[in-house]
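hey can u check if this looks right to u? its 196 residues, i copy pasted from the old doc so theres a chance i mangled smth
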Amino acid sequence: MSQPNINDLYTKLRKIEALSKSTTFAGEQSTAQQRARELRDKINDLEQDHLPNLLKKLKTLQETVQTLAIAGIEVPIQLKEQIQELNEKIEVARYRAIERENKQPFKFSIHDPWQRRLFMAMCRARGYEPYRLKFQRNQTLMVYVEPSMQELIWNEFNEAANVLVSYLSDVTASAVRDVYNQEDREANEIVGELPR
């Protein structure tokens, strides 16, 4: 027996949920709600297996493409289309997996105002609106996000923040040289008596 199509199951689930809302009989409503719960559980089980299977198929196809390239054989259009279709299915499966997670508020503390602006821009680019509670300090940012995204956003931010610090350091050094005609360096360390 073949595995049911997840999209078909979602369609069936929407119909059952609509039926449970439209019926006025308590018995029918209860039965429809029970069927909807069972179907949701089935979809969740299938989707947990679905993404790894898609990734395995994609890896196999990519290995085939590599083998053909090494042999100097042109990759057939059908194979390219299969890879494109798999990539689209993987994107949908990942999106649904993230949707299933419960969003939670996460607290971040970023003291540097430039890095804070960078972090907020990165969050907004992903569709998350950073906020601050009235009593919280200026360096505190809250983001309502899925737990799996919290680490991803933070790691991505740290990489971008390093680039920003390096860029600002270069701009400062250039300004010191151009405006004050001085070398950009740290203060001297003095051992012994202080100069007068």
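The two ends are 91 Å apart (CA to CA).
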